[in-house]
Every structure is written in structure tokens, then in C-alpha cells.
């Protein structure tokens, strides 16, 4: 294990019973981790071959702890509180990170110490079950001329892979472990405390959609929590574009200025009203989304963005 006192970047990683994926991502981290960086690995008490994988890669792991936790957010919090680097980067144990994109993002944070939060672009990938071939089905990026707005773009920007300036953490706090969409809520926390958010147009990650992916396993709860974040920021137009059932369910959480509805009768009334209001809008949205999907299916291929490295 490394014993570095002056840490540049803290890479933090959580895992639970995904030894083959962990082995792959640790090999990936070898491609961009440098001697003055640290890697903190938090395991939720795995019972598979995780311990053996950790021993295999012990030369790049600065700190490893294995104990039962409540969620990935809980594990990330423990890692963040132990991190020593000026820059903190969250990594997933089953995705891929492009070394050139990671190093370019870190260099940008070094060149602009006033940036509190940096996000970058990447690919969403699914695996063809018959052939095993990787299929890129979406690019996450900020189109040229668009203003960065992490609240409105919760479904479109890569909020899970934040590069954090350490100095923002005492102000913004850590992850809320009581909800499913913890990354969306953390984005909200950062915005509410006035963090300086920037987007760097580089391809930094390849995010895989597996059957075990949290966004698929807990999809309904995740969408509910994201809608609650939108409500916290008064983004009613975005909420009205959501299915009426999801939008209505969000109203037992965070609908007033302070983020709380204390009167359950008021919450129930709001849910009923919103369902009535949004049903025709949801119907229109359904047909629009269907038309968009069919149009995208008719295209011969997905066009990759121009990763020009521009900071905006």
C-alpha cells in the first residue's frame, strides 16, 4: 500500500460482491493513477473473491476497508471523509474511465483552482446478450452553445462522476444516504451552496447499463428522488414533463422552499392535483418521446460528439 503524505488526487471507489468487475476497474485505474495520488476502496462486506482481488492490486490501493454499509452513498461518504487529496474523484466499480480524459480533467482542475465541481462527457453502453458486443446507445455531453444547468439536466449530464475541489466539501457536506438518487441530491446541495460548476468537453467515462445497475433496479425510486430535486429548485416545467404517477409520488418529499412538506393532507392534495394537471401533458409527452425514439431508430448510426476539450 502507498504511503504518500502530499496527495494530489483522491480516487474513491465503493464495491460489494462484484469481484470480476472490481478486478477490471482496478486494472483500468492503473492506467491513470500516479504516485502522488491515492485510491481509497470501501467494500460493503463482500463474500465473494473481493479480498483476493484487493490483494492482487494492493500496490495501488492506499486504503481498503471492508464492513457492512447501507448503500454506495454510505461507502462514498466514508471514503470522502478519509480522503487527503485536493481533488476528489468518485469512480464506479463496473464502468470504464478513459485515462486521457481523466488526466485532462485533473489538469483543468489544477489550472483553474476556483472550480469547485467539474463534470465531463462520456458514453452510455449496453451489452448485446447474444454477441457480447458493446453498443453505445447515448453520449452524455453538453452541446455547444448550451449553458450548464445540472438541475435541469439531471437525466443528461454525468453527475455520478464529479471532480470535487476539496474546499467545497465543508460547505456542501456529503451524500444523503436516506434516498436512492444520492448523486442527484448531492448535485442539488452543491448548487444550493453556490458551488462553481463547470463542464469540460472531453470523453472521460464509459458507463455500462447492466441488469444489476442501481438506476435500473431502483428506477422508480431514483426518478421520484430526481423529481423531488427539481421541485426543490422550482423547476415545475421539467416536473410536468414527467409521467404523472412519478411526479405525484414525489410530493411526499421536498416541495416547499425549505425542502419539506410537513402536512400529509397537503401532500396528498398536491399529488392529486398534479396528477390531474399532468395527465394530458404526460400523454402528449409520451407520443413525443415515442416519435423521437422511432426517429432515432431510423438513423443508420449514432454520431459521436466532437470532444474539443473546451471548458464551459
Characterization of the model:
This protein has 2 domains: 9-216, Spore Coat Polysaccharide Biosynthesis Protein SpsA, Chain A; 234-297, no CATH class. The two termini are 37 Å apart. Mean pLDDT is 79; it is low at 244-266. It has helices at residues 19-29, 50-56, 72-82, 99-111, 169-172, 182-192, 214-217, 219-232, 236-240, 244-249, 264-298, and strands spanning 9-15, 38-43, 63-66, 87-91, 96-97, 117-127, 134-140, 163-165, 197-209. The longest helix is centred in the last third of the chain and has 35 residues, at 264-298. The protein is an alpha/beta fold. It has 11 helices and 9 strands.
CATH class designation of the largest domain? Alpha Beta
Helicity level, as a percent range? 25-40%
Number of strands: 9
Query: How many separate helices?
Result: 11
- The ordered string of helix (H) and strand (E) elements is EHEHEHEEHEEEHHEHHHHH
Structural class: alpha/beta
Q: Beta fraction of the residues?
A: 15-25%
Biggest beta sheet summary:
9 strands, mixed
Summarize model confidence as the mean pLDDT.
79
CATH topology of the largest domain: Spore Coat Polysaccharide Biosynthesis Protein SpsA, Chain A
CATH superfamily of the largest domain: Spore Coat Polysaccharide Biosynthesis Protein SpsA, Chain A
Shape: globular
What's the layout of helices and strands?
Blueprint (H helix, E strand, L loop, with lengths): L8 E7 L3 H11 L8 E6 L6 H7 L6 E4 L5 H11 L4 E5 L4 E2 L1 H13 L5 E11 L6 E7 L22 E3 L3 H4 L9 H11 L4 E13 L4 H4 L1 H14 L3 H5 L3 H6 L14 H35 L14
Parallel strand pairs: 1-2, 1-4, 2-3, 6-9
Antiparallel strand pairs: 4-8, 5-9, 6-7, 6-8
Helix pairs in contact: 1-2, 6-8
Amino acid at each position: 500500500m502507498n504511503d504518500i503524505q502530499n496527495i494530489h488526487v483522491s480516487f474513491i471507489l465503493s464495491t460489494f460482491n462484484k469481484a470480476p468487475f472490481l478486478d477490471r476497474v482496478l486494472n483500468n485505474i492503473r492506467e491513470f493513477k500516479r504516485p502522488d495520488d491515492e485510491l481509497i476502496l470501501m467494500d460493503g462486506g463482500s463474500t465473494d473473491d473481493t479480498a483476493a482481488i484487493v490483494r492482487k492490486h494492493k500496490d495501488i490501493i492506499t486504503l481498503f476497508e471492508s464492513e457492512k454499509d447501507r448503500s454506495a452513498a454510505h461507502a462514498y461518504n466514508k471514503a470522502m471523509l478519509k480522503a487527503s487529496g485536493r481533488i476528489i474523484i468518485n469512480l464506479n466499480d463496473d464502468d470504464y474511465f478513459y485515462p486521457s480524459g481523466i488526466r485532462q480533467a485533473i489538469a483543468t482542475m489544477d489550472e483553474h483552482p476556483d472550480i469547485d465541481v467539474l463534470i465531463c462527457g462520456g458514453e452510455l453502453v449496453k451489452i448485446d446478450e447474444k454477441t457480447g458486443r458493446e453498443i453505445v446507445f447515448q453520449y452524455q455531453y453538453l452541446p455547444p452553445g448550451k449553458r450548464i444547468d445540472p438541475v435541469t439536466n439531471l437525466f443528461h449530464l454525468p453527475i455520478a462522476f464529479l471532480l470535487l475541489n476539496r474546499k467545497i466539501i465543508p460547505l456542501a457536506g456529503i451524500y444523503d444516504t436516506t434516498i436512492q438518487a444520492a448523486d442527484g441530491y448531492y448535485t442539488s446541495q452543491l448548487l444550493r451552496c453556490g458551488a462553481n460548476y463547470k463542464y469540460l468537453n472531453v470523453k472521460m467515462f464509459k458507463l455500462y447499463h447492466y441488469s444489476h445497475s442501481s438506476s435500473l433496479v431502483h428506477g422508480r425510486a431514483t426518478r421520484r428522488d430526481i423529481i423531488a430535486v427539481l421541485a426543490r429548485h422550482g423547476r415545475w416545467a421539467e416536473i410536468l414533463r414527467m409521467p404523472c404517477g412519478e411526479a405525484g409520488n414525489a410530493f411526499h418529499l421536498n416541495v416547499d422552499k425549505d425542502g419539506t412538506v410537513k402536512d400529509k393532507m397537503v401532500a396528498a392534495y398536491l399529488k392529486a392535483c398534479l396528477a390531474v394537471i399532468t395527465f394530458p401533458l404526460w400523454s402528449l409527452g409520451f407520443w413525443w418521446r415515442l416519435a423521437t425514439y422511432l426517429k432515432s431508430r431510423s438513423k443508420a448510426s449514432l454520431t459521436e460528439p466532437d470532444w474539443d476539450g473546451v471548458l464551459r
